[in-house]
Amino acid sequence: MKDIYKHQNPTRSVYYNRIICLWVLIFMLRLATWNVRGLSKTYKQYHAAKDCGRYNVDVIALQETKTCEYLESTLPGSHQLFLLDQRHGVHGGLGFIVNKRFRKCIVAHQQISDRVAFMDFKIQEKSNQGQPCTIRIINCYSPTNPNSIRFPQTTDNFYSELRVAVDVPARYEIFILGDFNAKLGKRCLADEQHGLARNLGRFGIGRRNENGERLINFMVANNLFAANTAFYHSSRHISTRTGWIKDRATKKSRPYFSQIDYVLCRTRSRTLLRDARSYAGTILESDHKLVCAKVDFSARYKLYSDNTTVSKKYDTTTLVSSTESQEQYKSRLTQGIETSVALPTTQESFDHLFDCVKTAAAGSVGYKKKGKKTHYTSDDTVVDMTNQRHKLLMQLNNNKLIDRTDLRRKINKLKNNIEKRLRS
After folding, report:
1. In a 10 Å sphere around its CB, with 0-12 CB exposed, 13-18 middle and 19+ buried, how is residue 270 labelled?
2. pTM assigned to the model
Protein backbone atom coordinates (compact mmCIF):
# COMPACT_ATOMS: atom_id res chain seq x y z
CA MET A 1 0.00 0.00 0.00
CA LYS A 2 2.88 2.43 0.67
CA ASP A 3 3.78 2.79 -3.02
CA ILE A 4 0.19 3.61 -3.98
CA TYR A 5 -0.02 7.06 -2.40
CA LYS A 6 2.27 9.90 -1.45
CA HIS A 7 2.16 12.11 1.64
CA GLN A 8 1.72 15.75 0.72
CA ASN A 9 1.54 16.71 4.37
CA PRO A 10 1.94 13.64 6.60
CA THR A 11 0.48 15.30 9.69
CA ARG A 12 -2.62 16.76 8.08
CA SER A 13 -3.75 14.99 4.93
CA VAL A 14 -3.05 12.12 2.56
CA TYR A 15 -3.94 11.97 -1.13
CA TYR A 16 -3.23 9.26 -3.65
CA ASN A 17 -1.08 10.01 -6.73
CA ARG A 18 -3.07 7.55 -8.75
CA ILE A 19 -6.21 5.59 -7.98
CA ILE A 20 -6.07 1.89 -8.77
CA CYS A 21 -9.38 0.92 -10.35
CA LEU A 22 -9.87 -2.30 -8.43
CA TRP A 23 -13.29 -1.42 -7.05
CA VAL A 24 -14.61 -3.89 -4.54
CA LEU A 25 -18.21 -4.93 -5.10
CA ILE A 26 -19.45 -4.22 -1.58
CA PHE A 27 -23.19 -4.32 -1.00
CA MET A 28 -23.50 -4.52 2.81
CA LEU A 29 -21.30 -1.93 4.48
CA ARG A 30 -20.76 -1.94 8.26
CA LEU A 31 -19.72 1.40 9.78
CA ALA A 32 -18.96 2.00 13.43
CA THR A 33 -17.98 4.75 15.85
CA TRP A 34 -16.05 4.09 19.03
CA ASN A 35 -14.57 6.25 21.78
CA VAL A 36 -11.66 3.98 22.73
CA ARG A 37 -10.32 6.05 25.67
CA GLY A 38 -6.70 5.67 24.62
CA LEU A 39 -4.99 3.78 21.82
CA SER A 40 -1.32 4.69 22.22
CA LYS A 41 -0.28 1.24 23.49
CA THR A 42 0.47 -1.48 20.94
CA TYR A 43 -1.60 -4.13 22.73
CA LYS A 44 -4.65 -1.81 22.66
CA GLN A 45 -4.25 -1.39 18.91
CA TYR A 46 -4.13 -5.19 18.52
CA HIS A 47 -7.27 -5.55 20.65
CA ALA A 48 -9.05 -2.98 18.48
CA ALA A 49 -8.05 -4.94 15.36
CA LYS A 50 -9.48 -8.13 16.87
CA ASP A 51 -12.75 -6.34 17.62
CA CYS A 52 -12.84 -5.08 14.02
CA GLY A 53 -12.63 -8.68 12.82
CA ARG A 54 -15.01 -10.10 15.45
CA TYR A 55 -17.80 -7.64 14.63
CA ASN A 56 -16.99 -7.68 10.90
CA VAL A 57 -16.79 -3.87 10.65
CA ASP A 58 -15.51 -2.22 7.47
CA VAL A 59 -14.65 1.20 8.91
CA ILE A 60 -14.36 2.24 12.57
CA ALA A 61 -14.11 5.93 13.45
CA LEU A 62 -12.04 6.27 16.62
CA GLN A 63 -12.21 9.08 19.18
CA GLU A 64 -10.05 9.83 22.21
CA THR A 65 -7.04 7.93 20.87
CA LYS A 66 -4.78 10.16 23.05
CA THR A 67 -1.98 10.07 20.47
CA CYS A 68 -0.18 13.25 19.41
CA GLU A 69 1.68 12.13 16.27
CA TYR A 70 0.43 10.85 12.93
CA LEU A 71 0.72 7.08 12.59
CA GLU A 72 -0.27 4.67 9.87
CA SER A 73 0.28 0.97 10.36
CA THR A 74 -1.03 -2.46 9.40
CA LEU A 75 -2.63 -4.35 12.27
CA PRO A 76 -3.07 -8.13 12.67
CA GLY A 77 -5.62 -9.34 10.15
CA SER A 78 -4.25 -6.83 7.58
CA HIS A 79 -6.52 -4.05 8.88
CA GLN A 80 -5.21 -0.54 8.27
CA LEU A 81 -4.87 1.84 11.23
CA PHE A 82 -4.75 5.63 10.80
CA LEU A 83 -4.01 7.68 13.94
CA LEU A 84 -4.17 11.44 13.35
CA ASP A 85 -2.06 14.04 15.14
CA GLN A 86 -3.19 16.63 17.68
CA ARG A 87 -2.17 20.27 17.61
CA HIS A 88 -3.85 21.27 20.86
CA GLY A 89 -3.97 19.02 23.92
CA VAL A 90 -3.30 15.33 24.41
CA HIS A 91 -6.61 13.95 25.68
CA GLY A 92 -8.45 13.89 22.35
CA GLY A 93 -7.30 12.45 19.06
CA LEU A 94 -9.05 10.88 16.06
CA GLY A 95 -8.35 7.81 13.98
CA PHE A 96 -9.71 5.20 11.58
CA ILE A 97 -9.49 1.43 11.31
CA VAL A 98 -10.25 0.17 7.81
CA ASN A 99 -10.96 -3.50 7.19
CA LYS A 100 -8.57 -5.30 4.84
CA ARG A 101 -11.30 -5.95 2.24
CA PHE A 102 -12.15 -2.25 2.10
CA ARG A 103 -8.66 -0.72 1.99
CA LYS A 104 -8.48 -0.60 -1.82
CA CYS A 105 -11.53 1.65 -1.92
CA ILE A 106 -9.80 4.50 -0.07
CA VAL A 107 -9.40 7.61 -2.22
CA ALA A 108 -8.24 10.24 0.29
CA HIS A 109 -8.37 11.29 3.90
CA GLN A 110 -7.93 14.67 5.50
CA GLN A 111 -7.89 16.14 8.98
CA ILE A 112 -9.68 19.47 9.35
CA SER A 113 -8.92 19.94 13.06
CA ASP A 114 -8.28 17.97 16.23
CA ARG A 115 -12.01 17.27 16.40
CA VAL A 116 -13.04 16.69 12.75
CA ALA A 117 -11.55 14.48 10.03
CA PHE A 118 -12.91 12.61 7.02
CA MET A 119 -12.06 9.76 4.66
CA ASP A 120 -13.38 9.31 1.11
CA PHE A 121 -14.13 5.93 -0.48
CA LYS A 122 -15.36 4.77 -3.86
CA ILE A 123 -17.30 1.58 -4.45
CA GLN A 124 -18.65 0.25 -7.72
CA GLU A 125 -22.32 0.20 -8.61
CA LYS A 126 -24.21 -3.10 -8.51
CA SER A 127 -24.40 -3.19 -12.32
CA ASN A 128 -20.61 -2.66 -12.54
CA GLN A 129 -21.30 -0.24 -15.41
CA GLY A 130 -22.30 3.11 -13.94
CA GLN A 131 -20.29 5.69 -12.06
CA PRO A 132 -18.74 4.50 -8.77
CA CYS A 133 -20.48 5.60 -5.58
CA THR A 134 -18.43 8.12 -3.58
CA ILE A 135 -18.81 7.85 0.18
CA ARG A 136 -17.51 10.40 2.67
CA ILE A 137 -17.12 9.07 6.20
CA ILE A 138 -16.63 11.87 8.74
CA ASN A 139 -15.13 11.28 12.17
CA CYS A 140 -15.88 13.85 14.88
CA TYR A 141 -15.47 14.39 18.61
CA SER A 142 -17.63 17.12 20.16
CA PRO A 143 -16.88 19.08 23.37
CA THR A 144 -18.70 17.80 26.43
CA ASN A 145 -21.99 19.37 27.49
CA PRO A 146 -20.56 21.28 30.53
CA ASN A 147 -17.76 22.69 28.35
CA SER A 148 -20.28 23.69 25.68
CA ILE A 149 -22.19 25.70 28.28
CA ARG A 150 -19.03 27.31 29.72
CA PHE A 151 -17.26 27.88 26.39
CA PRO A 152 -19.92 28.08 23.65
CA GLN A 153 -17.39 29.39 21.11
CA THR A 154 -15.57 26.04 21.17
CA THR A 155 -18.73 24.18 20.19
CA ASP A 156 -19.55 26.80 17.54
CA ASN A 157 -16.10 26.22 16.01
CA PHE A 158 -16.69 22.45 16.09
CA TYR A 159 -19.94 22.70 14.11
CA SER A 160 -18.36 25.17 11.69
CA GLU A 161 -15.64 22.60 10.95
CA LEU A 162 -18.28 19.90 10.62
CA ARG A 163 -20.13 22.03 8.05
CA VAL A 164 -16.93 22.21 6.01
CA ALA A 165 -16.69 18.40 6.03
CA VAL A 166 -20.28 17.87 4.84
CA ASP A 167 -19.94 20.44 2.04
CA VAL A 168 -19.79 17.93 -0.83
CA PRO A 169 -21.70 17.38 -4.10
CA ALA A 170 -25.21 15.99 -3.76
CA ARG A 171 -24.22 12.66 -5.36
CA TYR A 172 -21.95 11.84 -2.39
CA GLU A 173 -23.19 9.56 0.36
CA ILE A 174 -22.34 11.04 3.78
CA PHE A 175 -21.98 9.18 7.07
CA ILE A 176 -20.94 11.07 10.20
CA LEU A 177 -19.59 8.82 12.94
CA GLY A 178 -18.69 10.31 16.25
CA ASP A 179 -18.93 10.97 19.94
CA PHE A 180 -21.18 14.04 19.96
CA ASN A 181 -21.50 14.19 23.77
CA ALA A 182 -25.13 15.08 22.99
CA LYS A 183 -28.38 13.55 24.18
CA LEU A 184 -31.01 13.76 21.46
CA GLY A 185 -33.52 12.11 23.75
CA LYS A 186 -36.70 10.27 22.95
CA ARG A 187 -38.80 11.72 20.14
CA CYS A 188 -41.83 13.51 21.57
CA LEU A 189 -45.07 14.93 20.20
CA ALA A 190 -43.58 18.41 19.86
CA ASP A 191 -40.75 16.98 17.74
CA GLU A 192 -43.26 15.33 15.40
CA GLN A 193 -45.28 18.53 15.12
CA HIS A 194 -42.11 20.41 14.14
CA GLY A 195 -41.20 17.83 11.49
CA LEU A 196 -38.27 16.26 13.33
CA ALA A 197 -39.50 12.77 12.49
CA ARG A 198 -37.37 13.13 9.33
CA ASN A 199 -34.26 13.44 11.50
CA LEU A 200 -34.99 11.27 14.56
CA GLY A 201 -36.17 7.71 14.96
CA ARG A 202 -38.62 6.48 17.56
CA PHE A 203 -36.15 4.59 19.72
CA GLY A 204 -33.85 7.16 21.30
CA ILE A 205 -33.42 7.30 25.07
CA GLY A 206 -33.02 10.02 27.69
CA ARG A 207 -33.83 13.71 27.62
CA ARG A 208 -32.33 16.26 25.27
CA ASN A 209 -29.58 18.49 26.65
CA GLU A 210 -27.83 21.64 25.40
CA ASN A 211 -25.52 19.71 23.07
CA GLY A 212 -28.54 17.75 21.85
CA GLU A 213 -30.27 20.98 20.80
CA ARG A 214 -27.17 22.05 18.87
CA LEU A 215 -26.91 18.66 17.19
CA ILE A 216 -30.57 18.50 16.16
CA ASN A 217 -30.30 22.01 14.66
CA PHE A 218 -27.26 20.89 12.66
CA MET A 219 -29.10 17.78 11.48
CA VAL A 220 -32.12 19.77 10.33
CA ALA A 221 -29.96 22.31 8.49
CA ASN A 222 -28.04 19.59 6.63
CA ASN A 223 -30.85 16.99 6.15
CA LEU A 224 -29.27 14.33 8.36
CA PHE A 225 -30.81 11.37 10.16
CA ALA A 226 -29.66 9.61 13.37
CA ALA A 227 -29.42 5.96 12.33
CA ASN A 228 -29.10 4.42 15.80
CA THR A 229 -32.43 5.91 16.90
CA ALA A 230 -34.36 4.14 14.14
CA PHE A 231 -34.30 0.48 15.20
CA TYR A 232 -35.93 -1.27 18.13
CA HIS A 233 -33.48 -3.03 20.44
CA SER A 234 -33.19 -3.69 24.14
CA SER A 235 -31.96 -0.73 26.22
CA ARG A 236 -28.44 -2.14 26.58
CA HIS A 237 -28.10 -2.09 22.79
CA ILE A 238 -29.39 1.50 22.48
CA SER A 239 -27.29 3.17 25.19
CA THR A 240 -23.74 3.98 24.08
CA ARG A 241 -21.98 4.98 27.30
CA THR A 242 -21.95 3.64 30.85
CA GLY A 243 -20.91 5.87 33.74
CA TRP A 244 -21.15 5.99 37.52
CA ILE A 245 -22.85 8.57 39.73
CA LYS A 246 -22.98 8.85 43.49
CA ASP A 247 -26.42 8.57 45.03
CA ARG A 248 -26.81 11.35 47.59
CA ALA A 249 -29.34 9.40 49.64
CA THR A 250 -27.48 6.09 50.01
CA LYS A 251 -23.92 7.46 49.45
CA LYS A 252 -23.36 4.58 47.04
CA SER A 253 -22.30 4.73 43.42
CA ARG A 254 -24.77 3.50 40.85
CA PRO A 255 -24.43 3.12 37.06
CA TYR A 256 -26.17 5.34 34.57
CA PHE A 257 -26.58 4.79 30.84
CA SER A 258 -26.76 7.41 28.09
CA GLN A 259 -26.87 7.67 24.32
CA ILE A 260 -24.29 10.23 23.16
CA ASP A 261 -22.57 8.45 20.21
CA TYR A 262 -24.36 8.50 16.86
CA VAL A 263 -24.15 7.39 13.26
CA LEU A 264 -25.67 10.08 11.03
CA CYS A 265 -26.60 9.73 7.35
CA ARG A 266 -28.52 11.75 4.77
CA THR A 267 -32.30 11.67 5.27
CA ARG A 268 -32.68 10.31 1.74
CA SER A 269 -30.36 7.39 2.65
CA ARG A 270 -32.65 5.95 5.33
CA THR A 271 -33.76 3.30 2.85
CA LEU A 272 -30.20 1.94 2.84
CA LEU A 273 -30.11 1.31 6.60
CA ARG A 274 -30.66 -2.25 7.75
CA ASP A 275 -29.71 -2.05 11.43
CA ALA A 276 -27.94 0.17 13.96
CA ARG A 277 -27.10 -0.72 17.56
CA SER A 278 -24.34 -0.73 20.15
CA TYR A 279 -22.14 -3.63 21.28
CA ALA A 280 -20.66 -3.91 24.76
CA GLY A 281 -18.63 -7.13 24.46
CA THR A 282 -15.45 -5.69 22.97
CA ILE A 283 -12.01 -6.93 23.98
CA LEU A 284 -10.67 -3.38 24.24
CA GLU A 285 -12.08 -1.86 27.42
CA SER A 286 -13.81 1.52 27.27
CA ASP A 287 -16.69 3.31 28.96
CA HIS A 288 -18.18 3.78 25.48
CA LYS A 289 -19.72 0.98 23.44
CA LEU A 290 -19.03 0.16 19.80
CA VAL A 291 -21.93 1.70 17.82
CA CYS A 292 -22.37 -0.07 14.48
CA ALA A 293 -24.69 0.57 11.52
CA LYS A 294 -25.36 -1.75 8.57
CA VAL A 295 -25.82 -0.03 5.21
CA ASP A 296 -27.16 -2.05 2.28
CA PHE A 297 -25.87 -0.58 -0.99
CA SER A 298 -27.56 -3.27 -3.06
CA ALA A 299 -30.72 -1.17 -2.68
CA ARG A 300 -29.00 2.07 -3.70
CA TYR A 301 -31.19 2.37 -6.79
CA LYS A 302 -34.06 3.26 -4.48
CA LEU A 303 -32.53 6.69 -3.97
CA TYR A 304 -32.64 7.61 -7.62
CA SER A 305 -35.43 5.46 -9.06
CA ASP A 306 -38.06 7.06 -11.27
CA ASN A 307 -41.54 7.71 -9.94
CA THR A 308 -43.57 4.55 -10.46
CA THR A 309 -47.20 4.78 -11.53
CA VAL A 310 -49.65 3.44 -8.97
CA SER A 311 -52.24 1.08 -10.41
CA LYS A 312 -55.80 2.31 -10.05
CA LYS A 313 -58.47 0.06 -8.58
CA TYR A 314 -62.12 0.13 -9.60
CA ASP A 315 -64.89 0.58 -7.05
CA THR A 316 -66.43 -2.89 -7.51
CA THR A 317 -68.59 -2.57 -4.38
CA THR A 318 -70.83 -0.13 -6.29
CA LEU A 319 -71.13 -2.61 -9.15
CA VAL A 320 -72.27 -5.37 -6.79
CA SER A 321 -74.70 -3.38 -4.67
CA SER A 322 -76.27 -0.93 -7.15
CA THR A 323 -78.63 -2.18 -9.89
CA GLU A 324 -78.35 1.18 -11.65
CA SER A 325 -74.54 0.86 -11.87
CA GLN A 326 -74.91 -2.67 -13.24
CA GLU A 327 -77.25 -1.54 -16.03
CA GLN A 328 -75.02 1.42 -16.85
CA TYR A 329 -71.94 -0.82 -17.00
CA LYS A 330 -73.73 -3.34 -19.29
CA SER A 331 -74.90 -0.66 -21.72
CA ARG A 332 -71.46 0.99 -21.93
CA LEU A 333 -69.74 -2.35 -22.46
CA THR A 334 -72.25 -3.45 -25.11
CA GLN A 335 -71.91 -0.14 -26.92
CA GLY A 336 -68.12 -0.40 -26.92
CA ILE A 337 -68.13 -3.95 -28.30
CA GLU A 338 -70.75 -3.27 -31.00
CA THR A 339 -68.94 -0.20 -32.35
CA SER A 340 -65.60 -2.02 -32.57
CA VAL A 341 -64.25 -3.19 -35.91
CA ALA A 342 -62.80 -6.59 -36.78
CA LEU A 343 -59.08 -6.85 -36.08
CA PRO A 344 -56.62 -9.12 -37.93
CA THR A 345 -55.16 -11.06 -34.97
CA THR A 346 -56.62 -12.71 -31.89
CA GLN A 347 -54.25 -10.83 -29.57
CA GLU A 348 -55.33 -7.44 -30.92
CA SER A 349 -58.99 -8.42 -30.56
CA PHE A 350 -58.44 -9.48 -26.97
CA ASP A 351 -56.58 -6.24 -26.15
CA HIS A 352 -59.39 -4.18 -27.65
CA LEU A 353 -62.00 -6.14 -25.64
CA PHE A 354 -59.99 -5.55 -22.46
CA ASP A 355 -59.84 -1.81 -23.23
CA CYS A 356 -63.64 -1.78 -23.66
CA VAL A 357 -64.09 -3.44 -20.25
CA LYS A 358 -61.81 -0.85 -18.56
CA THR A 359 -63.48 2.08 -20.30
CA ALA A 360 -66.96 0.85 -19.31
CA ALA A 361 -65.86 0.31 -15.70
CA ALA A 362 -64.26 3.76 -15.44
CA GLY A 363 -67.37 5.45 -16.83
CA SER A 364 -69.93 3.57 -14.75
CA VAL A 365 -68.46 2.69 -11.33
CA GLY A 366 -65.32 4.87 -11.21
CA TYR A 367 -62.12 4.33 -9.24
CA LYS A 368 -61.74 3.42 -5.59
CA LYS A 369 -60.81 6.39 -3.45
CA LYS A 370 -57.70 6.15 -1.31
CA GLY A 371 -58.53 6.35 2.36
CA LYS A 372 -56.90 5.90 5.72
CA LYS A 373 -56.40 2.43 7.12
CA THR A 374 -59.14 1.41 9.49
CA HIS A 375 -58.46 0.62 13.12
CA TYR A 376 -57.88 -3.02 14.01
CA THR A 377 -61.13 -3.02 15.98
CA SER A 378 -64.56 -1.60 15.21
CA ASP A 379 -65.28 -0.90 18.90
CA ASP A 380 -65.50 2.91 19.20
CA THR A 381 -64.69 2.80 22.92
CA VAL A 382 -61.43 0.88 22.31
CA VAL A 383 -60.47 3.24 19.48
CA ASP A 384 -61.08 6.27 21.70
CA MET A 385 -59.03 4.81 24.59
CA THR A 386 -56.21 3.88 22.21
CA ASN A 387 -56.03 7.43 20.86
CA GLN A 388 -55.99 8.84 24.39
CA ARG A 389 -53.16 6.48 25.36
CA HIS A 390 -51.15 7.47 22.27
CA LYS A 391 -51.44 11.18 23.16
CA LEU A 392 -50.33 10.50 26.73
CA LEU A 393 -47.34 8.50 25.46
CA MET A 394 -46.31 11.47 23.32
CA GLN A 395 -46.55 13.72 26.38
CA LEU A 396 -44.47 11.22 28.35
CA ASN A 397 -41.71 11.46 25.76
CA ASN A 398 -41.63 15.25 26.07
CA ASN A 399 -38.06 16.04 27.06
CA LYS A 400 -38.99 19.11 29.11
CA LEU A 401 -41.54 17.30 31.29
CA ILE A 402 -40.32 16.70 34.85
CA ASP A 403 -43.05 14.79 36.73
CA ARG A 404 -44.07 11.65 34.83
CA THR A 405 -45.66 9.61 37.65
CA ASP A 406 -49.21 10.75 36.99
CA LEU A 407 -48.85 10.22 33.25
CA ARG A 408 -47.55 6.69 33.70
CA ARG A 409 -50.47 5.89 36.01
CA LYS A 410 -53.00 7.10 33.41
CA ILE A 411 -51.25 5.20 30.60
CA ASN A 412 -51.21 1.93 32.54
CA LYS A 413 -54.86 2.36 33.53
CA LEU A 414 -55.88 2.89 29.88
CA LYS A 415 -53.84 -0.13 28.83
CA ASN A 416 -55.61 -2.35 31.38
CA ASN A 417 -59.03 -1.02 30.38
CA ILE A 418 -58.31 -1.70 26.69
CA GLU A 419 -57.26 -5.29 27.44
CA LYS A 420 -60.40 -5.86 29.56
CA ARG A 421 -62.61 -4.43 26.85
CA LEU A 422 -61.05 -6.65 24.16
CA ARG A 423 -61.39 -9.78 26.33
CA SER A 424 -65.06 -9.14 27.11
Report:
1. middle
2. 0.71
